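Hey, I was hoping to borrow your eyes for a little while. No rush at all, and the record is pasted right below.
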Amino acid sequence: MKKIKMLTDYFTKGEKILWLLSVVGIVTAFFTFDRENYITLTASLIGVTSLIFNAKGNPIGQFLMIVFSMLYGFISYTFSYFGEMATYLGMTAPMALVAFISWLQNPYKGNKLQVQVNRISKNEYIFMWIAGIIVTIIFYFILDKFNTANIIPSTISVTTSFVAVYLTFKRSPFYAVGYAANDVVLIVLWILASLEDISYVSVIVCFVAFLINDIYGFINWREIEKRQSVLL
């Protein structure tokens, strides 16, 4: 009971409401449009929970993101979104592991529940975009070879995913902007998928919830960055 109380006290009232509304939206959409693929429901709930921890700069969020990436990779495979499958299993999950380790190694003043926010240089941004372009080109040909459904948005998703995971590893507040951009792309992808199978509407709702949470994550990280700068 004490640990549960500590966990509930850890989050603000607004964060609790955001998480609860996200969960209610995801569960409602699942039982309205799907009712069968419980792995989709499980992945969505784990994913949205990871985001609320990420918004706090808590390494637990990255651990949950690893689990979500593996489940989402399987879901993508079921609709032949091989780009999403390859991106999350081959890039997002491994880099989330690296980010998890990085966050654990860089706690703010010894507080393992909050990572030290980092500002990256212009040269690092340049490297990120050059690497992102190279990765995107390579993945495009791989996706084309496997006859990936909706290849253009799938390829764009590779770019936004790479930017997001790179900035997450670097502990930059803009990681959330990268994920928000990726959420928009994924919403488009799954809208296209839902035109063929309405059960995928539940996945759309999942990423709408992700988008809202990532926007909050960016806002909160900027606040954390300000507080840490003042207290240095």
Q: What stands out?
A: The CA atoms of residues 6 and 12 lie 12 Å apart. The longest strand covers residues 111-115.
